[in-house]
Protein 1
Amino acid sequence: MKSWRRQNHLKRGDLRRNPLYKTILAIFFLIIPLGTLMVQAAETATPACPSLEQRPFNLKQVAKGVYLRKGRHETFTKDNLNAIANIGLIIGDTSVAVIDTGGSFCDGSRFHKALRQVTDKPISHVINTHVHPDHNLGNAAFVNGKSIFIGHKNLPRAVADKGQIYIENITRIVGKDVMAGTKSIPPSVTVTDEMKLNLGNRPLTLMALPTSHTNQDLVVFDESQKILWSGDLVFHEHTPVVDGSLLGWQTVMERLAKIPATHLIPGHGGPWLPWPEGATDQIRYLNKLATDLRRIISNGGTMLEAQKQAAKEEEEKWKLFEEFNPRNASAAFAELEWE
Ligand SMILES: [Zn+2]
């Protein structure tokens, strides 16, 4: 240090007064430790969203180029990380389509990481089957400026009307940690009737259906593997949820039956079922609900009676029956009352 100072004709103290020297000192003693602290803070900022090592995502291959995560038959909780819907992906020769993204940014990010463990092909399409928060609140994890987000023509309106309300309500239940980063994102491309996509030797047909489970249900038919991705147009094990039209849903099921698929991936349950047999339980439930409601209405029964009695015989056959059957009875009572 002494000889270097002499060579540069510097007096003792000159170095300490040099602005560059002060800057270097500041970097060493202030900015670097602060940066380290911030990195540590970022790593621990969302303790509620575990890594795949801490908690496996359970993405399983069910057919050639088809991977799925089966949702739990539960309502939203801090413990299940909102991972309650079936979500998955289809891999073609050139790209990947994601079908539904999960119940939160955390669920979606974990899905994205699990997806990257099975393929490095670009995600060309993110397909949302409908607005329900367990299926599409993971969208933000897939925004990269390149993937096209696709949904039913009615989905943008539904996202605008309900997206933020879903986020606020679910945040109250599971807390801010689990919902950190969650955003409601509408599709950039919509389907009015039918749309064809190709992921490279992997043609997909997307069909937008009339009001049934909701008023924005979209199904995907994977032609080469003959797989129907029904979204929540088919429930299995988990009590079906009527958020659109019971009568509409019964009609749509007849239309879906004509799709030449051999297998079904339902929105809940399964996740790998023969088609059309995989929808038998749900068709029976919807028919029973409609028959019971018509009888209750014609006997002058009230909505409260309908909630208690309609489709009661189905109780043992479904999970979350007490949670959803009374709501279905109310919704469909109002619909059938004016038949
Ligand atoms: Zn749904």
Note: The CA atoms of residues 284 and 314 lie 9 Å apart.
Protein 2
Amino acid sequence: MELNKNIDQFDIPLAKRTYLNNPNSTFLKKLLIFSPLLFLIFAVAALRFIGNVELIPLNNLKFEVKRSHDARILGHLPYKETPKEKLVLIDSNIEVHIDMRDSLLKMQEEAKKDGIYLVFLSGYRSINLQNHIFYSLKSIRNQEAAERARVSAPPGYSEHSTGFAIDIGDATQRETDFETDFENTDAFKWLKKNAAKFHFKLSFNKDNKYIDYEPWHWRYEGSIEALKVFESANKNYKSN
Ligand SMILES: [Zn+2]
């Protein structure tokens, strides 16, 4: 008796032994019977999902990732204002970052030797001035923000606030200042051929999706600071 009692203590309780015969367990039984079928349904669904993912071209996925990490507003990247002490006057009212002054003036000098007269139209612009340009002109010209952003950067998003951007014109054809027509001037043709030697690059070319082509707007990439400033513009956005 003592032995049986001990066995009973370790035995499975009666209710559990009859578990599968209990009417309450019908659902579980069904689940057991149909589990291979459920597994099959899940497996097919999973494979279809993987199949769909693979159907999306990989470069499209990369593009989406890049776009979502991009701080761009209406196609413009954010830029900090250069501290005043880094700015130098190169013309009566044009200031640029000290890093680019020599190169810019050298470029103007070399162009002159080829009979090309470059004129500087706009260099450094404070965020305040950009604020005025963007919102006032947008209002005066009855433009929506996106429309205005095609021709002018929102404040805090202009390459001009870095001091590393310069708008250039042809001194012999001032009517083309800030006009797409500037691309037909001798000055532009010369710049296209020679600007890279002086570390200048066209910022907004014809392929840019958001910003209109600006043949007059060049940025300087000839110092580490300048390269750092334009790193995301060069890395994330080929058409910039
Ligand atoms: Zn510009």
Note: Strands lie at 87-91, 94-97, 118-122, 165-170, 200-202, 217-220.
Protein 3
Amino acid sequence: MPELPEVQTVLDTLERKIKNRKIINIDVLYKPIIDLDEDVFKSKMIGQHFRHFKRRGKYLLFEMDDITFVSHLRMEGKYFILDDKTPISKHDHVIFYLDDNTQLRYNDVRKFGRMELIDIDKNYKVFKELGPEPFSDDFNLIYCKNYLINNNAPIKQILLNQSFVAGIGNIYADEILYYMKTNPNTIGKNITDGDIKKMIKGCRLILSEAIKKGGTTIRSYTSSLGVTGRFQLDLKVHTKEKCPKCKGDIKKIVVGGRGTYYCPNCQKQRTRIALTGTIGSGKSEAANYIRNEKGFEVFDCDAVNKKLLEPNASGYKQVVKAFPECVNDSKLDKQALAKIIFNNPKEKKKLENILHPLIFKEMEKAIEKNKLFIAEVPLLFESKWDKYFDCSILLVSNEKNMIKHLKLRGFSSKDAKSRIKNQMSVKEKEKRASRIIYNNGSLRNLYLSVDEAIESIINARN
Ligand SMILES: [Zn+2]
């Protein structure tokens, strides 16, 4: 199917050939191509000149004197400009007789193409099902971010969705994702700001190169003009066997029902793993193991939280303002703050509303850097942060261990028990977690379980 660059090339070529030509007569040889009554179509079009040549998505828009003629080539529609001596082919369905004795013929083997007439309009709002043009200012970071937020569809499928961005088809979507180094199966909401910037740049770069290439291909045609289909494009990944960058094998998969080519090495999946656990479950040991032995960066929500409450940090001023009762000698009394939020859910929420967006902002920076993003999030389910992650690893220890652990931190037996009771129940957490590790106290077993959990998550998403 012709995509944006092909349609643009057809349009540019026709503009050079038939601009200001007048339609003398029209023959409609296959009526369903036209979306309105044949006589009405003829009476509105005969006598009109081809004045301006525009495009919206994959639609060709010919602005005549009084009306806009819309043509969609669909699968195999083509236009030919021929003289009147050339015999009519059985696939020529609409013939426009022009005032210079040439004919504009619409040819379509599969007969899927459509033509209609609409009012001349500056913005063509009638195409409201279409997203912005890739080259327009409306296709920008904020627009994309809003579209992708909470979007669980694979990015390949989103790029093909004409309501997101107009004109991109299967071939260019693969090429754009290769340029972005983004796995086609990455879900929309995992696409970072950095990815979006690359996507916008990639769309424009790849499409404009194809338009340029199309122009030169078309110019090499001489007498008859078969404006359609694919040109000799420099495809890097689509239908290719080896990646030009890493020389690895290109993989073919199906995404949203479409054949999709990508390099598994250059286009790694973005995955966000949350590591959480009950009190004394060995969460920090597991995080340190992943960090030091496995070499992955592990984002530590608690540490960031603490940092945000240091004087001069972004959260400090806001918290001081919101909790004046916790300020002593113009300094934040963190113990007093902890006491207040432990006993009062409303105050706790107030503090979270200040700190969580700031932690999330720090987290986004780390996500940008790491395709495999792992974070230690102590209260993952309680704070409903599991929605920001693709999967979670929950570490669980028994109550005896939990109490022992809390006692080491200076809690009395009674306080320890009430602290445990205060948390979401282990059963509830187990229901929500994607993987569970029962830590019986053996470090060796803990490490083996962590290895297994991370490996299986990575394998499942490649
Ligand atoms: Zn590669």
Note: The domain at 271-460 is CATH 3.40.50.300 (Rossmann fold).
